[in-house]
Amino acid sequence: MRFSPAYVSILSAAALPAQYAWIQNPANGHTYALTTPMTWHQAEAEAMRVGGHLATVRNAGENAWLVQTFPVRSWIGLTDEVTEGLWRWTSGEAFVYAAWCPGEPNNLNDEDYDGSNRDDTWILGGAGWQVASPLSAPSARRHHTLTYDPIAQRVLLFGGFDTTYRGDLWRSSYAAAQVAFGTGCGGPALTLGPGLTPPVVGQMFTAPVTNVPSGTPVVWMSLGLRDDLVGPFMLPLPLDGFGLPGCWAYHDVAIGLMLPCASTGTSTAQFSMLVPSVASIAGTRVIAQAWVTEPAANAAGILTSNALRVVLGTQ
Q1: Hey, which bits of 233-275 come out as E strands?
Q2: 181 and 228, same domain (yes or no)
Q3: What is the pLDDT of residues 213-227, one digit of tens each?
Q4: What distance in Å separates the CA atoms of residue 148 and residue 172, rounded to the nearest whole number?
Q5: Contact of 263 with 214, CB cutoff 8 Å
Q6: Do 158 and 201 fall into the same domain?
Q7: 85, 103, 115, 174: which has the fewest C-beta neighbours closer than 10 Å?
Q8: Whole-structure pTM over 0.85, yes or no?
């Protein structure tokens, strides 16, 4: 019994029933839509039901448009089911263009239908999915396994089939990230903002500090690696008992306690640091917190800001 996998399918038709979101290719005037997952025969039958066929690819331009518009593993209307090795389009058009992946067609598992392997990379950002251009990436393949490692904050890809079955493991690069959390003290509260530049390995990272008390000689930055414990104390640690009512400590001081910030105005400052160009530190999480000396503020004469959680990235 031949195994027939279920993939989404690219239809091309003229009837344009409302159940599909049809998209017209301005270069050839044809309209296309994507189905739910189904077998190749089911997909071709559905295409014929709506007055068309699975997509025919006539040239490199059409292929590029389909790949960009429908960036998923999908069925198209190419088959050699009637005569092995003699490929034809279900639309009846001449087979004059092909863009086979390396090693294809190979008749693996007696395959008689063509789909499309993708080797593109997409990143989910705050505004939606965006295509990325990594320096290296796995080959176009199918039947692979993808999973997300929440601790390392990386996507893992294992195995799959391109021209042969693979046993390789790929790890995504680290994306630079930062998020502000907690609250500062003072009136108004000393505030550490998100970095003006992303914390990328080998590049300068800068972050603004606002609501600096007038006359403050120096704004300091402290950097740590943990935001759960500092010595025997759990974090965040209220500093009321140390003479700083309403202030909090948000991290340990594994990296530094007194890193100077540059003044940028009467009530603003900026912290700048060149992230070392060391590939092994990518993915490291760093927690930053600003503080200033202000004798009139409290018994300790110190104010602290909120904190900034940063992940050092390669992009």
Answers
A1: 233-234, 237-238, 248-249, 256-260, 262-263, 268-274
A2: yes
A3: 988 888 999 999 999
A4: 10
A5: no
A6: no
A7: 85
A8: no
